[in-house]
Amino acid sequence: MRLHVGCAMWAHTPWQGRLLPHPLPPAERLRAYASWCNAVEGNTTFYATPSRATVESWARQTEPGFRFLVKLPKTVTHERRLHGAEEELQAFLEAIEPLGPRVDALWVQLPGSFGPAELGALAAFLRGLPGAYRYAVEVRHPAFFADARSERLLEGVLRAAGAEWVPFDTTVLFGRPPTSEAEREAWTRKPRLPRRSAALTGRPVVRYIGRDAATETIAGWAHWVDQVTEWLREGRSPTVFVHTPDNAEALTLARRFHEEVRTRVPQVEPLPEPVPAEPLTLF
From first to last of its 283 residues, what are the pLDDT tens digits of the chain? Predict the structure, then answer.
């Protein structure tokens, strides 16, 4: 039983010199982030498969208990729509191999146009994946949330593959009109879908986005504090990623979420102590 928390990235300009040391060479940035959180979303792999040397650096900067949710390349999920992308998929799998058990799950994020009619393609794709990894699927087509039959069919495909359904909870973001430029941009880019809370496996994954105001983000995650507490008491080991439109306070918020859950489930292992943002001095 373990709770992992993290953010959408490990390097973010508003964190530099305030939460994380600055300047830092690229080979040290993830190490500094990993003193705050014990998981991270691997969004960059969606746009380009990293070199094996780069991934080896990620492994060196993190402890064995750190977890990556690594997103499959868009060529596989969005351009080829899970068809005929064997070469791209193999190159990706070879590149991330150095992460070993640090891979919490490989993240299959599907486009909003990927609907129930394509579930056969998803089932075939999941069947063809290597058994060395866990898999987590994020869907954005409204039918999977509004139509009970489509929901059951997707759950059946995922259960057969031992894969998790990743909810992206945007209900707080869309709860009232945006009040900042970052919130306005998020309104144009994030999916507006109902909240989903059911876990299919022993290691559920949640993506939650709040507002730029920390107080609103904290108030809005009360549902997830309850749900994660329940999962932990059931013996599950969830991973929760905390986002805000500007992500300026995402690091501190992720730790705050972990602390709130840990007050209810004291057996949860504490997070590491963050490295100082500024070098220690004698005076």
Answer: 799 999 999 999 999 999 999 999 989 999 999 999 999 999 999 999 999 999 999 999 999 999 999 999 999 999 999 999 999 999 999 999 999 999 999 999 999 999 999 999 999 999 999 999 999 999 999 999 999 999 999 999 999 999 999 999 999 999 999 999 999 999 999 999 999 999 999 999 999 999 999 999 999 999 999 999 999 999 999 999 999 999 999 999 999 999 999 999 999 999 999 999 875 444 4
* Alpha helices for 47-147 (secondary structure H): 52-60, 74, 86-96, 119-127, 143-146
- List CB contacts of 174: < 8 A, sequence separation 6 or more: 187, 190, 192
Among 90, 99, 79, residue whose Cα is nearest residue 34: 99
Contact between 30 and 6 (Cβ < 8 Å): no
Q: Supply 96's token pair.
A: 């991330």
pTM over 0.90: yes
What separation in angstroms does the CA of 103 have from each of 69, 167, 169, 188, 261? 6, 19, 22, 30, 23
Nearest to 102 by CA among 137, 132, 139: 132
C-alpha to C-alpha distances, 175 to 41, 59, 170, 171, 211, nearest whole angstrom: 25, 39, 9, 6, 10
What H or E segment, with its residue span, contains residue 109?
strand 103-109
Strand partners, 6: 39, 241
E-strand ranges in 16-102 read 39-42, 67-71
